[in-house]
Specification:
One of its GO terms (molecular function) is structural constituent of ribosome. InterPro entries: Ribosomal_uL15, Ribosomal_uL15/eL18, Ribosomal_uL15/eL18_sf, Ribosomal_uL15_bac-type, Ribosomal_uL15_CS. By secondary structure, the chain is an alpha/beta fold. It has a domain of 73 residues: Ribosomal Protein L15, Chain: K, domain 2, CATH 3.100.10.10. Helix content is 21%, strand content 11%. The chain is built from 4 helices and 6 strands, in the order αβαβαβββαβ. A 3-stranded parallel β-sheet has the order 1-3-5. Strands 2-4-6 form a 3-stranded parallel β-sheet. The longest helix has 9 residues. The radius of gyration is 39 Å and the shape is rod-shaped. The N and C termini lie far apart (105 Å).
């Protein structure tokens, strides 16, 4: 063993660099005074400020899971009995003309016929959904649904 071949088992420990105006490390000339230098520093998250600027959804009530899909307008068998005569064709347009349904924002709504009441007239229903009981009553009176 010679003096020039000796090596240390542990190399020298370098001191951690801090950045108080130095070239690199910790604050590095960017300062650290004020709020960031104090204990308990929690600056307000920027995302929260952006979130607070978005307007709230008004009028949704307590149920925010309620569907935005438009529900069909309901017409009962009793309404058809009262408004239509024997052999008429029931469509969304004829229901609108008789005043049984109304347009929504200028658009024709979907229509569903429910089986409340008694039907004695033969009616042809087209372009409208119908419940099972309404379908039975329309077909029992001699009408048809398409």
């Amino acid at each position: 063993m010679q003096l020039n071949t000796l090596q240390r088992v542990h190399p020298n420990q370098r001191s951690a660099q801090v950045g108080r105006g130095g070239k690199r490390g910790k604050t590095s000339g960017r300062g650290g005074k004020g709020q960031t230098a104090r204990a308990g520093n929690k600056p307000r998250p920027e995302f929260r400020d952006a979130l607070m600027k978005i307007p709230k959804q008004r009028g949704r009530g307590t149920n925010t899971f309620k569907s935005f899909q438009p529900r069909p307008d309901i017409v009962s068998i009793a309404d058809l009995e009262r408004a239509f005569s024997h052999g008429d064709t029931v469509t969304a347009e004829s229901l609108l003309a008789k005043g049984l349904i109304q347009k929504r924002s200028g658009n024709m709504p979907q229509v569903k016929i429910l089986g409340d009441g008694v039907l004695t007239k033969k009616l042809a229903v087209s372009g409208c959904a119908a419940s099972a009981s309404a379908r039975k009553k329309i077909e029992a009176a001699g009408g048809l649904i398409s």
